[in-house]
Automatic annotation (TrEMBL):
Subunit composition and interactions: Homodimer.
Glutamine amidotransferase type-2 domain ranges (all copies): 2-217
Catalytic activity: D-fructose 6-phosphate + L-glutamine = D-glucosamine 6-phosphate + L-glutamate
UniProt xrefs under NCBIfam families: glmS (TIGR01135), PRK00331.1 (NF001484)
Biological role stated in the UniProt entry: Catalyzes the first step in hexosamine metabolism, converting fructose-6P into glucosamine-6P using glutamine as a nitrogen source.
Start and end residues of each SIS domain: 285-425, 458-599
HAMAP family per the UniProt record, alphabetical: GlmS (MF_00164)
Protein name, as recorded: Glutamine--fructose-6-phosphate aminotransferase [isomerizing]
Keyword Repeat: yes
Xref: CDD domains: GFAT (cd00714), SIS_GlmS_GlmD_1 (cd05008), SIS_GlmS_GlmD_2 (cd05009)
Length: 609
């Protein structure tokens, strides 16, 4: 949830740190800071608020150095204050930290007894003091770091500089991503490759338990037992364009409009193969997916709603039982595991701690087979999974997940058809039909984007509301949930979603003339039922905003507004009906003047409990 960048070079690294922090800001944005080695002194600047404020302060104070570290913070331990912002310093040691140290209270007691004083409420400050403590005991900065991490429980990515060692930076990783960027006579560290792409594309992902030393001349990596180890050097193909706004006002807007391309890229392998080979999910996927008897999906937030949609597909099309559970609930539940149920984790970032822990828990319960659907190559969750399907949405910067969701749906649909084939539910003709439907999807999505002006008009009405209800049934109930989440997340309007049939069991009491009710109402087998539910709303004075499709046979009337998507998209209809609710949330937030890409209190990837 926080971001780390560090650099050692022969040039001034402050611009590299600031640029890196701006690129990481979407991950956490309540405070930021940098620390540099200036002569034989550590200098530090920290500010609450956005990186731009800290940048201004660094410029005013004339920061320039060839060795430095930086951090963007999303508060966990301790409020949003300058003293809680990173870097934290102890007697000439400065460090930045992502993650959570679980035994920080015991370590704090121990350090207090040793005479250390604390200036923050963070769990991080204990690490700075511990490193200083071990430095005092003899040994260098790397040894002190290696001794320190052995005393920590929890998750961390760390970058450390020390007054006594101007020629190097040391880093460590456990449970949080950290990579090293390799330059010519300069080297870098970052929690996310986007932070250092300006400087290098040659990267080395550190493994769990690794520590490393970066000098200008090179990098040495050590495994958890402190033995030297080699890690593979890769070339990052993340495009800089995906990190730039271009002509758009917000990343969310850009990412909504990128969906036709993101979907086309995600389904490209199936289109190229002319069908749905199991190999879409890895070389060994055929044997694994044929052997399973059911599916258990684990995810959080929007990714969970992708899973809820997939349940309808997997049960109806592949004929396999499928359960979907919020990862943070599953991981603490005494679940009855069926080892022959495939665990499917869905995570845009591949870093979400609850999903990662749920995956570990599922394995501990005896689940033999795991599959990850993820948008970030080399992230923790796919690395811990047996089978992987990478969505090809490209970098998603807006905190509100948009293109990641629809590409997750595309991947899950492909998984459904693969399972259906392997379990004898789909013959060649049906497979060809599904492929054809998938082939049309990017074009249909493009058509839905053309509805934007009509949705802008609705958003202006929503902007003055305090509450909203979203209704859907069957396959489209998860899309109602996604619409409500998007609206509350970025516009701060309280929104709830219900299966339309559930309305009369309680939520109908909320409906009056002030309550806008969004209905996802495509022309499927439940349409007549949805129409009855809409009557229940109208009869109580509620105003209906209906997303239908051309053949749904709706007409607008007093208190009933209708926008039609171009055509009914069969089983892929949930994908098409996602775009209008994304656009409604986006334009409502715009009209209310919220910070669309960085909504309050949130962060892009949630690496804490
Ligand atoms: O990276 P993940 O897909 O695992 O993230 C899960 C949720 O934190 C995420 O989908 C969140 O709900 C989004 N901000 C919603 O737009």
């Amino acid at each position: 949830m926080c971001g780390i960048v560090g650099a050692i070079a022969d040039r001034d690294v402050v611009p590299v740190l600031i640029e890196g922090l701006k690129r990481l800001e979407y991950r956490g944005y309540d405070s930021s800071g940098i620390a540099v080695l200036d002569g034989d002194a550590i200098r530090r600047v920290r500010r609450t608020g956005r990186v731009a404020e800290m940048e201004g302060a660094a410029a005013t104070e004339g920061f320039a150095a060839t060795l430095g570290i930086g951090h963007t913070r999303w508060a966990t331990h301790g409020g949003v204050t300058e003293s809680n912002a990173h870097p934290h310093v102890s007697h000439g040691v400065a460090l930045v930290h992502n993650g959570i140290i679980e035994n920080h209270e015991q370590q704090r007691e121990r350090l207090l007894a040793l005479g250390y004083e604390f200036e923050s409420q963070t769990d991080t400050e204990v690490i700075a003091h511990l490193i200083h403590y071990h430095l005092q005991g003899g040994g260098d900065l790397l040894t002190a770091l290696q001794r320190t991490v052995k005393e920590l429980t929890g998750a961390y990515a760390l970058a450390v500089i020390g007054r006594s060692e101007p020629q190097r930076m040391v880093v460590a990783r456990m449970g949080c991503p950290l990579l090293v960027g390799l330059g010519e006579g300069e080297n870098f560290v970052a929690s996310d490759v986007s932070a250092i792409l300006q400087a290098t594309r040659r990267v080395m992902f550190l493994e769990e338990g690794d520590t490393a030393e970066l000098t200008r001349a090179g990098v040495r990596v050590f495994a958890a037992d402190d033995a030297p180890v080699e890690r593979e050097v890769r070339f990052s193909d993340v495009s800089l364009a995906s990190l730039e706004l271009g002509p758009y006002r917000h990343f969310m807007q850009k990412e909504i409009h990128e969906q036709p391309r993101a979907l086309a890229d995600t389904i490209e392998a199936a289109i190229d193969a002319g069908g749905f080979p199991a190999a879409l999910f890895g070389a060994d996927a055929g044997a694994v997916l044929k052997d399973i008897e059911g599916v258990q999906i684990l995810a959080c937030g929007t990714s969970y709603y992708a899973g809820l949609t997939a349940r309808y597909w997997i049960e109806a099309i592949a004929g396999l039982p499928c359960s979907v559970e919020i990862a943070s609930e599953y991981r603490y539940r005494a679940a009855c595991a069926n080892p022959r149920h495939l665990i499917v984790t869905i995570s845009q970032s591949g870093e979400t701690l609850d999903t990662m822990e749920a995956l570990k828990y599922a394995k501990a319960l005896g689940h033999a087979h795991t599959l990850s659907i993820c948008n970030v190559p080399e992230s923790a969750i796919p690395r811990a999974s047996e089978l992987v399907c990478y969505t090809r949405a490209g970098a998603e910067i807006g905190v509100a997940s948009t293109k990641a969701f629809t590409t997750q749906l595309a991947a899950l649909f492909q998984l459904t058809v693969v399972l259906g084939k392997l379990h004898g539910r789909i013959d060649a003709a049906l497979e060809a039909d599904y492929l054809e439907q998938l082939r049309h999807l990017p074009g249909s999505v493009q058509h839905v984007l053309n509805l934007e002006p009509q949705i802008v008009a609705w958003a202006e009405r929503f902007a003055g509301k305090s509450n909203a209800l979203f209704l859907g049934r069957g396959l489209h109930y998860p899309i109602a949930l996604e619409g409500a989440l998007k609206l509350k997340e970025i516009s701060y309007i309280h929104a709830e979603a219900y299966p339309a049939g559930e309305l009369k069991h309680g939520p109908l009491a909320l409906v009056d003339a002030e309550m806008p009710v969004v209905v996802i109402a495509p022309n499927d087998s439940l349409l007549e039922k949805v129409k009855s539910n809409m009557q229940e709303v109208r009869a109580r004075g509620g105003e209906l905003f209906v997303f239908a499709d051309q053949d749904s046979n709706f007409s607008a009337s007093d208190g009933v507004h209708v926008i039609r998507t171009p055509r009914h998209a069969g089983v892929l209809s949930p994908v098409l009906h996602t775009l209008p609710v994304q656009l409604l949330a986006y334009h409502t937030a715009l009209a209310r003047g919220t910070d669309v890409d960085k909504p309050r209190n949130l962060a892009k990837s949630v690496t804490v409990e």
